[in-house]
Design goal:
Structural class: alpha+beta
Bound molecules: zinc ion
Distance between the termini: 44 Å
Shape: elongated
Length: 140
Amino acid sequence: LLFAVVGCPACRRVQVIETRTPNVRCRGCDKQFDWSERKRFYHGDDAKEARRVASTLSLQVGGAGIEAIAESAAAMEREKTVSVEQVVRQLELLSEFGMEDVESVCKAMRFNGPADRLVAMLRSQQRVFEPRPGRFRWIP
Ligand SMILES: [Zn+2]
């Protein structure tokens, strides 16, 4: 069984779909669309990983944010250079995030630095605060 993470062309909702048939139905707006024509944020047989990718992308960001994350990740993959600040810029698209989101973004961008040290750095630089345990927000 193969899964893909795609956004609906109508409502932009990011979701995990099974790729058995070309046409799938959006769980958000019920529109039918051809998943193969959509940008694939994940494609493979790991359902758990697919769900993880989808939930990271669906976070608090809107459609523009999701596209931005995907575009930047693709660009960096081409260049094979990802800096801490590039990862931070992606995280800034999220109004609030947790450690698992940092890990997902690092993974999506193929950044190998440990997520907990990245967050520790942001906290020590007073760029984020922790309104609830394990949740972080940007200091304007
Ligand atoms: Zn939809």
